[in-house]
Amino acid sequence: MTDTITRGAANQSGAHINKDAYKEAKDFLPLNGLDHVEFWVGNARQAAHYYRMLWGFSPIAYAGLETGVRDRTSYVMRQNDITIVVTGALGPDGEIAEHVKAHGDGVHDIAFSVDDATSAFRETTKRGARGVVEPRELDGGEDGILRLSSVGTYGSVVHSFVDRRDYHGVYAPGYRRIKKPARAATGMSLLEIDHCVGNVALGDMNRFVDYYRDVFGFAQLIHYDDKVIHTEYSALMSKVMTNGNGRIKFPINEPATGKKKSQIQEFLDYYYEAGTQHIALRTENIVKTVRTLRESGVEFLGMPHAYYEQLPERVGDVGVSIETLEELGIEADRDEEGFLLQIFTRPIQDRPTFFFEIIERHGSRGFGVGNFKALFEAIEIEQARRGNL
Prior knowledge:
Layout: E1 15-17, H1 21-24, E2 33-41, H2 44-53, E3 58-63, E4 72-79, E5 82-89, H3 95-103, E6 106-113, H4 117-125, E7 131-139, E8 145-152, E9 158-163, E10 176-177, E11 190-199, H5 205-216, E12 219-224, E13 235-242, E14 249-256, H6 263-271, E15 275-283, H7 286-296, H8 305-315, H9 322-328, E16 331-335, E17 338-344, E18 355-362, H10 372-386
Parallel strand pairs: 2-5, 6-9, 11-14, 15-18
Antiparallel strand pairs: 1-12, 2-6, 3-4, 3-10, 4-5, 7-8, 8-9, 11-15, 12-13, 13-14, 16-17, 17-18
C-alpha cells in the first residue's frame, strides 16, 4: 500500500496506511484463502432460495433429515469462488436455535482453507486462541477424508480450518450433491469474497487487532480513526488486518463517541454482541451486477445528487459515466494505486445488522475512504427512518 492517500476527500490525516503490512504478516499459519462462510438462519430453505433467486448462487449440496442429520438443515450455495452455507435448526433447542433467537440470522463461521488443520489449530491455540472444535477427520468413504478444526474470535463467530487435500466430495461428508438444482438467477459476476467486516464494542477494536496479530500472524494494513469516518452526529474507528498473502482482509470496527448513535452501535444493540457486520463480494462488472440485483429485488443504500456532482473532480475517469453511477447508486474512490467502485445493500433481514457490499477493484487495495463520509450520512438517514439515530 502507499504511505498516503492523495486525492480529494481521501487526503485526511485520520487515515494511516501501512505499506509493509504484507511483509510484516507472519507465515507460521499459512492460509490459502477463505473456504466458505456459514450463516446460522431461522429458515435454511428460504435463505437458500433468497441466495439462488436474488443473488444467483447455485445450490450444490444439502444436509438434513434425508442425509441422516437430525438437528439441522444446511444448503451449500456457490458462485465462482464464493461458497455460502446456510444452516437452520430443526427444533427449539441447541446452539443454532439459541444463536438465531439472540442474534437473528448472522455469520457463524468464516472458514479458512489450509493445508494442515491440525497444525493450524495447534499454532493458534498455543498463541491464545479459544479452541472450539479440536482437529478431527471426517470419513467420506470413496470421497476421501476431510480434516478440520476451529477456534473462536469476536462474539460467537468462529474460524474453521478446512483441509480438503484428501477429500474429493461435493462439500463434506454427510452432504449429498444436488444433482438437478433449480435454475439460479443470471447476470451476476460475483467472483470471490473481498473482505469480511467485524463490529466490536467500544474499546475492543485494539484487543482484536492484537488477537489477529498475535494468534493468526496478521498485520495491520490500514487504520481509519474518527477524523475520517464521521459526520456531524456520529463516528467510528476501524483497523484493517490482513494475512501475509493478502487473500484475507478483516476490517474491525468499533463505535466512537458522537452526538448520536453510530451505525456500529446500532448493529451491536440489535445483534446483542460483536459480530460480522458485512461481507464484500468482488465483481468484474459492478454495473451489470448491481443492475441485475436491483431488478431481482435487492435493496441498496442511495447517495445524494451532490455526491455525484463532486465525483468527477475527486476521482476522475473510472470507466463508467457519472450518470450511470448515479442511476445505480454506485460509489467511486481513487488512491495512488488505482480506483474502486462499490455499493452497499440495506440490511438483508429484519434486524438492522448484516448487509453485503459489492466491490470492483482497478488497482486500489483500499476500502473507499473518500466515500466514508457520504456513506455514513446515507446510513444515518436509514437509522433515522428506523428511529435509531
